[in-house]
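Consider the tokenized backbone below.
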């Protein structure tokens, strides 16, 4: 579709990422394709929430946490590991610990920068079952999968799970 819906013109040319729950779509965020600021845009008045939260109902002993929806989509689609996304390193909510506390292992796939590492450390301070896998400098999950392939992520996740 070349034309934006009325009131959505500012999102034209961006990837629409729906937040889907059993009751339907509850929010939509928009990601820039390419090097455009801001990278993500949300609907006016929308509150940030955990992306792909319904996966906690079907995941078994472990779950992956990424910084961003796109990285969670990459993990779920390319590796088949269950993943939720937090829309930005500063958007972790304290009540997310209650959602993730029952998992034996929470694997944080942190971006390869200082905010990414702090994101992983923050979650680790709040949960006792965290393993942090930091991406190489300047990369996130999606960019490293594009550069190195899906085995890069799979190998590191399997190492975390087998170390237990």
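A designed sequence for it:
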């Amino acid at each position: 579709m070349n034309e934006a819906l009325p009131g959505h013109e500012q999102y034209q040319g961006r990837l629409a990422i729906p937040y889907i729950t059993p009751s339907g779509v509850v929010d939509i965020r928009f990601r820039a394709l390419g090097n455009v600021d801001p990278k993500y845009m949300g609907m006016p008045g929308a509150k940030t929430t955990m992306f792909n939260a319904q996966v906690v109902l079907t995941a078994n002993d472990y779950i992956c946490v990424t910084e961003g929806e796109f990285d969670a989509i990459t993990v779920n689609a390319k590796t088949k590991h269950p993943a939720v996304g937090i829309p930005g390193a500063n958007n972790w909510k304290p009540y997310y610990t209650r959602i993730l506390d029952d998992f034996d292992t929470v694997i944080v796939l942190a971006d390869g920068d200082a905010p990414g590492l702090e994101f992983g450390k923050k979650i680790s301070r709040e949960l006792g079952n965290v393993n942090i896998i930091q991406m190489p400098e300047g990369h996130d999950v999606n960019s490293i999968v594009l550069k190195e392939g899906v085995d890069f992520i799979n190998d590191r996740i399997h190492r975390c799970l087998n170390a237990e």
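The radius of gyration is 16 Å.
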